Amino acid sequence: MRQIFICEVGPRDGLQNAHHLMPTEAKKAWIASMAAAGIEEIEVGSFVPPKLIPAMADTAEIVAFAIGIPNLKVVALAPNVRGFERAVAAGAQKITFPVSASRAHSLANVRMTPEQMADEVRKCVELRGKEGPQIEAGVATAFGCTMQGEVPEDDVVRLAVMLAESGVDCVALADTVGYANPAQIRRLFKRVKAEIGDKLEAAHLHNTRGLGLANALAAYEEGVRHFDSSMGGLGGCPFAPGASGNVVTEDLVFMFESMGVRTGVDFEKLMAARKLLVAGIPDEPVYGHTPMAGLPKGFRAAA
Ligand code: COA
Ligand code: ZN
């Protein structure tokens, strides 16, 4: 039984911000290899206008492929009702929406205010009916914004409550531009949890200032068990100036496994998947301390 749950967001958050395109067949091989390493949830792409983000143009084909992989939950991002309908048609099992707490980022990213975007999510919850995919709302720029600066915690709490009340299955808090520190993580997760309870699920953290793992540990200590991360530390929002990569999946797995917390992920197989990432997008820099240094001698995965 795993004790924490990793959602690999590299194929979406990572590739949307890469300088190079990964060919569709390479994406499929990479996704399959990550699932084979024990990753149970992968955000495989987004249903945004292809003109806006060409790297996501093949998402329908990627979803169709990925839903055939056993024991994998296939997640896709949608920015509006149109994207939600495309994601449902493709067969996505979970659909995640970026709802920025920063008005400036929300307008730049989805051309809607946070309230308009929350309303868009509510429409999708109604459209879904009883049988549809799981719906997640990710509160983006929850810890600060490069465009607006400070994002008041009250705004984040209010938005999270609005989203939870609109009927989404789960809410995530996202540090889109890597501004968070561990004290802030603990404070805000605690506050939001007090309002919406178990609907608060994932921490989506970026490593822009090197605090990704420290923040993940702080969230864990606050009871968070779902983490988004990106293989090779790729990632960043093209519409948030200064955003860079997510917390590195390989390092997150190493941290938790070496602490005795089961991730369900096999590190050696994860390294094999990393080779496919590099082969699929050879000119893109990839990051990660553990992959470069290697596992410590005598390392034992969590029993
Ligand atoms: N998928 C495909 N096409 C879409 C679409 C979607 N989800 N949503 C809108 N379109 C099309 C419209 O049909 C329209 O096409 P047309 O020009 O041929 O008529 C065109 O795109 C513009 O539609 P509009 O509703 O005016 O959208 P917009 O230009 O105001 O952009 C978003 C709004 C939400 C679609 C866009 O800002 C977006 O995709 N943002 C997400 C960015 C992102 O992925 N950020 C990183 C993840 S956090
Ligand atoms: Zn992100």
Write the layout of secondary structure elements.
Layout: E1 5-8, H1 10-16, H2 24-36, E2 41-46, H3 59-66, E3 73-77, H4 81-90, E4 94-100, H5 103-110, H6 114-128, E5 134-140, H7 153-165, E6 170-175, H8 182-196, E7 200-205, H9 212-221, E8 226-229, H10 249-258, H11 267-280, H12 289-293
Q: Please, could you describe this protein's structure?
A:
The structure is a single chain. The chain has a single domain (5-293), classed as Aldolase class I (TIM Barrel, Alpha-Beta Barrel). The N and C termini lie close together (10 Å). The radius of gyration is 18 Å and the shape is globular. An 8-stranded parallel barrel has the order 1-2-3-4-5-6-7-8, surrounded by 9 helices. By secondary structure, it is α/β, with parallel strands linked by helices. It has 12 helices and 8 strands. The model has no long low-confidence stretch (mean pLDDT 97). The structure holds coenzyme A (COA) and zinc ion (ZN). Zinc ion binds next to loops.
Spatial strand sequence of the major β-sheet: 1-2-3-4-5-6-7-8
- Low-pLDDT stretches: none
Counted by DSSP, the helix tally is 12
Number of strands: 8
Q: From the 3D coordinates, which CATH architecture would you assign?
A: Alpha-Beta Barrel
- The succession of helices and strands, N to C, reads EHHEHEHEHHEHEHEHEHHH
Structural class: alpha/beta
Mind telling me the C-alpha Rg? 18 Å
* Beta-strand content: 5-15%
User: Hetero groups bound?
Assistant: coenzyme A, zinc ion
CATH class: Alpha Beta
The CATH homologous superfamily is called Aldolase class I
What would the principal axes of the Cα set say about the shape?
A: globular
